[in-house]
Amino acid sequence: MKEYWTSLASLLGVLAFCQTLLQVVFPPELRFATFKLLNRISNWFSSYCYFDITEIDGVNTNELYNAVQLYLSSSVSITGSRLSLTRALNSSAITFGLSNNDCIVDAYKGVTVIWEHIVTQRQSQTFSWRPLPEEKRGFTLRIKKRDKKLILDSYLDYIMEKANEMRRKNQDRLLYTNSRGGSLDSRGHPWESVPFKHPSTFETLAMDPVKKDEILKDLVDFANGQGFYQKTGRAWKRGYLLYGPPGTGKSSMIAAMANYLGYDIYDLELTEVHTNSELRKLLMKTSSKSIIVIEDIDCSLNLTNRKNSSNTYYDVGEMRGGCVSGEDGAGGNNTITLSGLLNFTDGLWSCCGSERIFVFTTNHIEKLDPALLRSGRMDMHIYMSYCSFPALKILLKNYLGIDEGDLDCAVLKELEDVVDKAEMTPADVSELLIKNRRDKEKAARELLEALKVMAERRAKNAEDMEEEEQEKRALESPKQGCEFQEEEESCKEGKGDDEKDDNSTIEK
Ligand SMILES: Nc1ncnc2c1ncn2[C@@H]1O[C@H](COP(=O)(O)OP(=O)(O)OP(=O)(O)O)[C@@H](O)[C@H]1O
Ligand SMILES: [Mg+2]
């Protein structure tokens, strides 16, 4: 036994001596090169190869990392023995994830692959312009060398596709906002997101069924139109301009679109964007299959500060309550231009993602610059109108469960006669219905009364306005007569002068 310990000690001694000798005799460069060579040799003989997929790639978030995480979460939940569970704020879904430095086996087309989740502490002295997460996270994919082609050609694409599908199907839709005013989060994102839970659908949306059908078909054509857009050489995007009075369902329509297509929403707060390049960066950070929304576009940009039509400047500073001066907007830091906005929607940069929908809303279409309305910019202009009779029937069905046949014929006829004249918004009508939803008869009666009152008020207003117009015309007409007389006289005088001039010319 004593002999064994003696020989072990001497062996260790020899090893330590060799190491010291190696360090003393060989310079660090040579040592490094030797290790590299040994590594190469061992790799040469190994039948495996490895791929690292880090969470942050330089300064950008690596989409592949997120996709792998989501993709693996489904198989992890079944096979994994130690899992990390996460539930995003306000989210209803729990996401399973691999624990730190844990492995999972996956199979694709008969090939077995091994994923390892690696988490290490970031070195504190690492310099970065923006705060980085404390942990460095990444996946390592281990595959047989002979399967490399299959994995690189299709497995990773398959993962991306699957993850997108899962995101659409299982996850809550996300609503992104740029309310941070241009600053980035620790993962380099200018957008903040919350789960999008708006319950509006095309069934709940009260509007003319023919118009609704047209929009639905347009959306379906768009979503299935990859081949068409490719064939025609167009960017795979579409623009909708929703306009109409407040409370007619513009925002509800956007939510219905997102829910119908399963897209995320990027709600772009234009007053938080300072420059065109910031706008472009925001666009670059949006994902495919999304709706990019600019609500109340006439209020987001101050249209009074137009300089010229080709490169229109808007003073965004003024719109922030005068905190930022940005007086003339000409190239200042706090300005975005119309051309910047148009580039955002249909310039070269707008194609940096695909399958995206742009939606602008406004209460005042007449205030918008014609450049925004030109065909090809906003493909479809959708007028969200006051409550019409078909829309009213949808609201009655949704809020009270009343079909056309359930109502008294006379009441129905009265409703039909008065609803257009009343010019009430679907928002107002639905408020009335909610209030009385326990008593259907009462709800219908009160609605009819309210519509009648509104119709009368509108008619009275129209009469008053007509009278005012007439009075104005009457007051202006004698004056206009005078003006005409004066003009005629001055014309005559002018003509006399001209004639004089002419004469003088002739004289010359
Ligand atoms: N066409 C509609 N169908 C069903 N509900 C509607 C419709 N229009 C309005 N509503 C109801 O009124 C509320 C307000 O509507 P919404 O916010 O969509 O109007 P808006 O047109 O976006 O108004 P604003 O111009 O003020 O932004 C919604 O929550 C919804 O319940
Ligand atoms: Mg709205």
Could you name the CATH topology of the largest domain?
Rossmann fold
CATH class of the largest domain: Alpha Beta
Structural class, judged by helices and strands? alpha/beta
Gap between N and C termini: 140 Å
Bound molecules: adenosine-5'-triphosphate, magnesium ion
Please give the number of β-strands. 17
Low-confidence stretches: 303-333, 491-508
Number of domains: 3
Oligomer state equals single chain
Number of helices: 16
Average pLDDT for all residues = 78
The CATH architecture of the largest domain can be given as: 3-Layer(aba) Sandwich
CATH superfamily of the largest domain: P-loop containing nucleotide triphosphate hydrolases
Q: Kindly report the spatial arrangement of strands forming the biggest sheet.
A: 10-9-12-13-16-11-17
Strand count, sense and closure of the main sheet? 7 strands, mixed
Which of globular, elongated, flat, extended, rod-shaped describes the shape? elongated
Strand content: 15-25%
State the helical fraction. 40-55%
Instruction: Round the Cα radius of gyration to an integer and report it.
Output: 35 Å
